[in-house]
Write a structure and sequence with these properties.
Length: about 375
C-alpha cells in the first residue's frame, strides 16, 4: 500500500532507478536549459538557439565513457542490494532497451534515457502517485518505465494522477531565470534571447520535478525559479486543496531542492549553507541546520573535457534517510560522514562514484513509496 509523506520516518518500500543502457545525453534546447548552471565552461556548440534555428539539424548526443556507465550500473545495483539487505522492499523500473527508438513530440524527437533519477518525474504524496510535467524532452516518457510498479500500487488502492503534459516547444519555457543569471548556456554561444516559433506553441507551460518538493507531513515546500514552476505549483495547490499546505521558496536553486536542503528528522535539516534558513516559511526557520564542510576536490573522480558534469560539487548532500537515525551517505565524503556522526546519526556509507556525470545522488536515484509516517503537522 502506498504511504509516503516525508523523507525521514521508517522506510519500508522504495523504487530504485535503473542505469541500464544509459549511454549519453541529447544536448538539445531542453537539456541545455535544465542544466545551464552546471555545464558552464563546457562545449555548447549545439546549444540554443543554433539547434532550433536550423530544421535540418538534429540534437547531438554527448556520449558517456563506457567505464563510467558500467561503474554507474554497479553502484546503482549495489544501492538496490544494500536496501534489500536492510529489510526494505525494493521495486525497480523496466530497463531501457539497448536499441530503444527515439521518442517524439510535436516538432521534436529525442533519444530516451533510462528511469535512473526516479525522484524527478514523480511525486508521492500520501496515497497518491503524481506524475509531474517534465522539462527535458528525452525524459518525456520516462515514467512509462515505472508503469508496472505504479499499476501495482493502484491495484491496492493508491490514487494515480498525471499533471498536464507540456508540448515542450522552444516557446514553452520561461527564460527569465537563465537570462537573469547572464548565462550563455555553458560556453561561447548565443544568449537565450530568441525563441524559435512553432505551429504547436501554446505559450509558457507548467513544468515541475518531484525533486523540487520537500515533503514535511502536512506541509510541502516547493522551489520555484520561474513561471513554468509557478504554473505547476498553482495546479498542485488547487489539486491538493485542503490535503496539504503548499509553500513556495523563490530561487533556492534553478530547480531541485534536494541538493540544497533535506529533512533528516523533525526539527533537523541538512543544508548546503545556513543562509537557506531565511528563505523558508517562518514555522521551519527554527529547525536546526546541519551544514557539512565544503566538498574537497579529492572526493570526485578526475574527468577530461570529454565528460559533461551535470551537478555541482554539493551533490553529496543528496542523502537517503532510512529513518530518523540511519542515513545512506556517499562513502567518498568523509567530512559529511563525520558531521552526521557527530550529530548522532548512524551513517551507512555507499559507493557512488560518478554522481556528477549522471545528475543525482541516493535521494535522486530513489522514490520512497511506503514510510511509517503520516500527515503530521511538523510546524
Amino acid at each position: 500500500m502506498l504511504n509516503s509523506y516525508d523523507d525521514f520516518t521508517p522506510l519500508n518500500e522504495i523504487i530504485v532507478g535503473s542505469a541500464e543502457n544509459y549511454v549519453g545525453h541529447d544536448r538539445d534546447l531542453t537539456f541545455e536549459l535544465f542544466f545551464h548552471e552546471s555545464i558552464g565552461g563546457y562545449r555548447s556548440d549545439w546549444a540554443y538557439p543554433r539547434l532550433a534555428a536550423h530544421a535540418s539539424e538534429q540534437a547531438e548526443t554527448w556520449k558517456i565513457g563506457k567505464q563510467y556507465t558500467e561503474e554507474l550500473h554497479e553502484d546503482v545495483e549495489n544501492l538496490a542490494a544494500t536496501l534489500t539487505s536492510l529489510g526494505i522492499t525494493v521495486h525497480r523500473p523496466l530497463p531501457l532497451p539497448e536499441d530503444a527508438l527515439p521518442i517524439a513530440g510535436l516538432g521534436w524527437q529525442a533519444a530516451p534515457i533510462p528511469a535512473l533519477n526516479v525522484r524527478d518525474n514523480t511525486l508521492i504524496l500520501g496515497d497518491e502517485i503524481i506524475e509531474t510535467p517534465p522539462a527535458i524532452r528525452s525524459r518525456y516518457l520516462e515514467t512509462r518505465l515505472l508503469s508496472k510498479v505504479f499499476r501495482s500500487y493502484f491495484d491496492t488502492g493508491a490514487r494515480w494522477t498525471t499533471m498536464p503534459r507540456p508540448t515542450l516547444t522552444d516557446r514553452s519555457f520561461d527564460l527569465s531565470y537563465a537570462q537573469s543569471a547572464a548565462t550563455t548556456l555553458g560556453g561561447p554561444t548565443e544568449p537565450i534571447t530568441d525563441p524559435q516559433p512553432s505551429p504547436y506553441d501554446v505559450g509558457v507551460e507548467m513544468m515541475l520535478d518531484g525533486a523540487q518538493v520537500l515533503r514535511l507531513g502536512q506541509d510541502l515546500i516547493v522551489n520555484v525559479a520561474q513561471d513554468n514552476h509557478r504554473l505547476a505549483v498553482d495546479w498542485l495547490t488547487r489539486h491538493l486543496k485542503d490535503r496539504f499546505r503548499v509553500h513556495t521558496v523563490y530561487r533556492m536553486a534553478d530547480n531541485h531542492i534536494d541538493s540544497m536542503l533535506l529533512a533528516l528528522r523533525p526539527g533537523v535539516f541538512l543544508a548546503r549553507h545556513a543562509g537557506l534558513r531565511d528563505m523558508l516559511p517562518a514555522p521551519f526557520r527554527s529547525w536546526k541546520f546541519i551544514v557539512p564542510p565544503e566538498p574537497e576536490p579529492g572526493q570526485f573522480p578526475v574527468y577530461t573535457d570529454a565528460e559533461l558534469l551535470l551537478t555541482s560539487p554539493y551533490i553529496d548532500i543528496n542523502v537517503l534517510s532510512l529513518d530518523e537515525e540511519r542515513v545512506l551517505v556517499n562513502a567518498d565524503c568523509p567530512g559529511l560522514i563525520k558531521t552526521l556522526e557527530n550529530e548522532g546519526f548512524t551513517v551507512i556509507p555507499l559507493q557512488h562514484r560518478h554522481r556528477r556525470l549522471f545528475g543525482g545522488g541516493a535521494h535522486c536515484f530513489t522514490l520512497d513509496t511506503h514510510r511509517a509516517g503520516g500527515p503530521v503537522d511538523y510546524r
